[in-house]
C-alpha cells in the first residue's frame, strides 16, 4: 500500500538479438524502456542510435484510418451508457488478434474503402457546387424574363437593380428623368403567372425595396446612372445563363436529386463494410503497439556488436524478468541498480481494493515523487465523509448504490471506469448514513402531508434524525468548521511525515510542529470573541500561540543570511505571505469547509421544493395523482444528477485545494511498461472477456 520500489536495469544484448529482446520485453509488459543516454551520457560519442523503420507500420495505420474514417461517416458507432461515461478500451483476445492478422484481407477492404471514399468525395463536391449555384440563383428565381434577352438590345442600355420605394416615387415625378428613361417594376414571377391585372400586384410601402428594370438611350446613360445613384439605386448583376432563372434552378435540382441518389448508393456500400469495424480496430491497436515497440528501440544505443537498452522494472517483477532472460535469452546480460537519489523514477502505486478507487484523485493532481509517500489511504475517508454530508439523503444514496453496482458489473474489465463506479459505491454508504442522521429522504417526502400520518418512513426518520440542518444550520456549520480544522491539522501532520521520511526532521519540526502548536492556541484566542472560555483555557491558548509563533518567527526565515531579514521573514510568515503556511491560509481553507453545509442544505431544499410543487398538482381531478408521481420522478431525478455532481466536485476540491496544499507535491511521471495494453486496447483471455 505504497509507492512501488523500482529497480533500474541495463540490458546488454548482441545486435542480432536486439529485436528479439524487445519482443520479449513487450510480451512481459513489466519493463519501461528509457533513454540510455539519460542514464549514461558518456556513451553519446562512443555509440550510435540504432536505425528504425516504420514505413510498413505507418502505411498500415493510414489504410486502417481510411477505413475507419469512412465508417465513422456512414456507420457511426452508437455509444451505450457505459461507453458514454469515458473512453472504453478494446478487449482483445489472442485468438482474435491472430485471426485479424492472418485471416483478414486489409488490402482488399482498404481498396474498396478508398474507392468509395474517392467516389463519395467527388459526389459530395458536385452536390456542394450545385447547392451553392442554387443558393446564388434563388434571389433571381422570380424574374419573369429570360436572362439572355436582357443582354440582347444593342441600341438601348438596360439596368436592373433595387431602390427604396420612396426614392422611386421621387424619380417618377421627375419629368426630365421620365423623358430619358423607361422604367418597369419587376414583380415576383408568381404575380405574373397569376394575372396580368395590375390591381393584383402587391402594394409597396415607402421604405420597401422595389426591383426595377430601367431602359435608356446610350447618350443618356451617364446622366441616368448618376440620377439613380443619387437616389440610392443599387445595381444587381444578373447571372450569365440562357432562359429564365427558374428553369435553370429546376434543371440544377434535377441534377442534385441524381447526385443524392448516387451518394446514398455509396453510403449503402460503405455501410456494408461496418461488419469489419471491430477487426479493423483490433488491427489498429496491434499496429499502434508495434509502432511503440519499434520507437522504443530508438532509446537504445549500439556499437558494432553490442546494443545497450535501459529501463525500470518494479522490484516485485524483477525476478520474473531475470528468469525469462536467463531461460530464453542467455546471451543477454542484466545490470540491476537502485535509482540514484533525485533521479526521475517513474511512479507505480499498488493499492488494496478498498483504497484503489481514490487513486483517480491522485492522478488528477499528479503522482507524487519517488521519494515521497502515497497519500491515498489518508484521502479516502475524508472524501467519503465530505461527499456524504454534501449529498446526504437516504433515497439518493440508495439510488447511487444501485447505479454504481450496475456500472461496476458492466465495467469490471475496464479499470478506470470500474474504480470510478466503485468510489461512487463507497460514497453511497456515507450518503445513506448522513441522510438518516440529517433527516433527509427525498427531502421531506416522508412527512404526513405527502404520505399520510404516522407512515413507516416518518417513524424511521424521526428515530434516526439527530440534527435537522433546516432547523439547526448553525450547529451543522460548526460541525463543518470543526471538520475543516481537523483536516487542516491532519494535512500538517502528513507534511511532517513526508519531511521526516525524506530525512528532514528539523524541517518537520519547524514547518509542521510549530504550526500544530500555534494554530490551536490561535483558535482558543479567537473563540474568546464569541464565547467566554475558562481562564485556564485562555491561558493555555495564549501559551500555545506564543510558543508556536515564537518558533515560527525564529525558523521560517532560516534561508535568509541577514539576521534582520530572517526576523522580518519570520514575522510576515505568520500572516502567510511567505513561508510554508500562514494564519490567513488557515482561516481561508477552514472557511472553505462551509461548503459542506451549503451543499447539504441545497440538496435538501431543492428536494423539498420539488415535493411542494408536486403536492400542489395532486388535487387536479382524475390525473392529479399521476401528475404528482411524474413531477416527483422528474424533479428528484434532476436534483439527484445535479447534487451528485456538486457533491463529487466540491468534495474533490476540498481534497485537491484545501488538503493537498498543506503537504502534497506532485510531479511524478507514470510508470509505463512496454507492452500491448494501453488506453485504447487491452489483451485479455477469453474467460476475462466473457465476464
Topology:
Layout lengths: L1 E2 L2 E9 L3 H11 L2 E4 L1 H4 L15 H20 L6 H5 L4 E4 H9 L3 H32 L9 H4 L6 E8 H8 L2 H6 E5 L3 H6 L14 E8 L4 H10 L3 E2 L9 H28 L4 H20 L4 E2 L3 E9 L3 H11 L4 E5 L11 E2 L8 H7 L10 H16 L2 H17 L4 H24 L9 H4 L4 H9 L8 H29 L3 H23 L7 H21 L7 H13 L7 H9 L3 H23 L6 H40 L17 E4 L1 H5 L1
Parallel strand pairs: 4-13
Antiparallel strand pairs: 1-12, 2-10, 2-11, 3-10, 5-7, 5-8, 6-7, 9-10
Helix pairs in contact: 3-6, 3-13, 5-13, 6-12, 16-18, 16-26, 16-27, 17-18, 21-22, 21-25, 21-26, 21-27, 22-23, 23-24, 26-27
On the 0 to 100 scale, the average pLDDT is: 87
Count of alpha and pi helical runs:
28
The gyration radius over C-alpha positions equals: 39 Å
Strand content: 5-15%
How far apart the termini lie comes to: 27 Å
Poorly predicted parts: 190-199
Overall form: extended
Structural class: alpha+beta
Largest sheet entry: 5 strands, antiparallel
Structural commentary:
30% of the residues are buried. Strand 9 and strand 10 form a beta hairpin. Helix content is 60%, strand content 9%. By secondary structure, the chain is α+β, with helices and mostly antiparallel strands. Strands 2, 3, 9, 10 and 11 form a 5-stranded antiparallel beta sheet that branches. A 4-stranded antiparallel beta sheet has the order 6-7-5-8. Strands 1-12 form a two-stranded antiparallel sheet. Helix 6 (106-137) runs antiparallel to helix 12 (245-272). Among the domains are: 144-243, 2-Layer Sandwich (Alpha-Beta Plaits), CATH 3.30.70; 373-663, no CATH class. It contains 28 helices and 13 strands.
Amino acid at each position: 500500500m505504497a509507492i512501488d520500489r523500482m529497480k533500474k536495469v541495463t540490458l546488454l544484448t548482441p545486435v542480432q538479438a536486439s529485436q528479439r529482446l524487445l519482443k520479449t520485453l513487450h510480451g512481459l509488459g513489466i519493463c519501461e524502456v528509457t533513454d540510455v543516454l539519460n542514464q549514461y551520457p558518456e556513451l553519446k560519442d562512443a555509440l550510435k542510435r540504432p536505425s528504425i523503420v516504420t514505413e510498413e507500420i505507418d502505411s498500415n495505420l493510414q489504410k486502417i484510418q481510411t477505413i475507419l474514417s469512412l465508417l465513422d461517416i456512414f456507420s457511426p458507432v452508437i455509444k451505450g451508457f457505459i461507453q458514454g461515461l469515458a473512453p472504453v478500451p478494446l478487449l482483445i483476445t489472442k485468438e482474435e488478434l491472430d485471426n485479424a492478422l492472418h485471416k483478414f484481407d486489409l488490402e482488399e477492404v482498404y481498396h474498396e474503402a478508398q474507392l468509395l471514399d474517392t467516389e463519395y468525395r467527388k459526389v459530395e463536391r458536385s452536390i456542394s457546387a450545385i447547392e451553392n449555384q442554387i443558393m446564388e440563383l434563388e434571389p433571381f428565381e422570380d424574374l419573369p424574363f429570360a436572362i439572355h434577352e436582357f443582354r440582347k438590345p444593342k441600341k438601348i442600355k438596360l439596368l436592373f437593380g433595387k431602390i427604396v420605394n420612396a426614392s422611386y416615387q421621387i424619380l417618377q415625378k421627375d419629368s426630365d428623368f421620365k423623358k430619358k428613361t423607361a422604367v418597369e417594376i419587376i414583380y415576383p414571377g408568381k404575380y405574373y403567372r397569376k394575372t396580368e391585372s395590375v390591381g393584383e400586384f402587391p402594394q409597396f410601402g415607402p421604405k420597401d425595396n422595389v426591383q426595377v428594370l430601367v431602359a435608356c438611350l446610350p447618350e443618356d446613360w451617364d446622366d441616368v446612372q448618376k440620377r439613380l445613384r443619387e437616389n440610392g439605386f443599387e445595381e444587381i448583376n444578373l447571372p450569365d445563363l440562357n432562359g429564365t432563372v427558374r428553369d435553370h434552378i429546376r434543371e440544377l435540382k434535377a441534377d442534385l436529386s441524381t447526385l443524392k441518389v448516387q451518394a446514398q448508393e455509396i453510403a449503402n456500400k460503405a455501410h456494408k463494410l461496418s461488419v469489419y469495424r471491430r477487426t479493423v480496430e483490433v488491427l489498429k491497436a496491434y499496429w499502434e503497439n508495434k509502432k511503440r515497440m519499434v520507437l522504443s528501440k530508438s532509446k537504445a544505443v549500439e556499437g558494432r556488436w553490442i546494443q545497450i537498452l535501459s529501463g525500470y522494472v518494479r522490484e516485485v517483477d524483477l525476478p520474473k524478468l531475470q528468469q525469462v532472460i536467463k531461460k530464453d535469452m542467455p546471451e543477454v546480460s542484466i545490470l540491476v541498480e537502485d535509482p540514484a537519489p533525485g533521479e526521475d523514477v517513474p511512479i507505480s502505486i499498488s493499492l488494496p481494493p478498498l483504497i484503489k478507487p481514490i487513486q483517480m484523485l491522485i492522478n488528477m493532481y499528479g503522482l507524487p515523487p519517488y521519494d515521497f509517500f502515497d497519500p491515498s489511504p489518508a484521502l479516502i475517508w475524508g472524501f467519503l465523509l465530505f461527499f456524504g454530508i454534501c449529498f446526504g439523503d437516504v433515497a439518493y444514496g440508495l439510488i447511487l448504490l444501485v447505479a454504481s453496482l450496475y456500472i461496476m458489473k458492466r465495467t469490471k474489465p475496464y479499470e478506470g471506469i470500474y474504480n470510478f463506479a466503485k468510489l461512487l459505491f463507497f460514497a453511497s454508504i456515507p450518503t445513506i448514513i448522513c441522510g438518516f442522521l440529517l433527516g433527509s429522504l427525498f427531502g421531506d417526502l416522508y412527512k404526513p402531508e405527502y404520505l399520510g400520518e404516522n407512515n413507516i418512513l416518518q417513524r424511521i426518520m424521526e428515530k434516526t434524525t439527530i440534527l435537522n440542518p433546516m432547523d439547526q444550520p448553525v450547529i451543522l456549520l460548526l460541525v463543518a468548521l470543526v471538520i475543516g480544522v481537523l483536516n487542516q491539522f491532519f494535512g500538517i501532520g502528513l507534511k511532517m511525515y513526508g519531511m521526516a521520511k525524506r530525512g528532514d526532521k528539523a524541517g518537520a519540526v519547524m514547518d509542521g510542529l510549530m504550526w500544530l502548536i500555534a494554530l490551536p492556541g490561535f483558535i482558543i484566542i479567537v473563540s474568546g470573541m464569541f464565547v467566554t472560555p475558562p481562564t485556564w483555557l485562555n491561558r493555555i491558548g495564549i501559551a500555545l500561540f506564543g510558543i508556536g509563533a515564537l518558533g515560527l518567527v525564529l525558523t521560517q526565515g532560516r534561508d535568509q543570511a541577514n539576521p534582520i531579514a530572517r526576523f522580518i521573514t519570520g514575522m510576515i510568515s505568520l500572516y502567510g505571505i511567505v513561508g510554508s503556511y500562514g494564519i490567513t491560509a488557515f482561516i481561508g481553507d477552514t472557511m472553505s469547509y462551509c461548503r459542506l453545509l451549503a451543499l447539504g442544505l441545497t440538496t435538501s431544499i431543492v428536494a423539498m421544493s420539488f415535493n411542494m410543487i408536486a403536492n400542489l398538482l395532486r388535487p387536479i381531478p382524475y390525473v392529479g395523482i399521476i401528475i404528482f408521481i411524474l413531477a416527483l420522478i422528474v424533479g428528484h431525478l434532476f436534483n439527484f444528477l445535479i447534487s451528485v455532481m456538486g457533491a463529487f466536485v466540491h468534495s474533490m476540491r476540498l481534497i485537491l485545494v484545501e488538503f493537498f496544499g498543506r503537504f502534497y507535491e506532485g510531479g511524478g511521471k507514470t510508470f509505463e511498461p512496454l507492452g500491448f495494453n494501453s488506453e485504447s486496447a487491452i489483451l485479455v483471455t477469453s474467460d476475462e472477456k466473457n465476464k
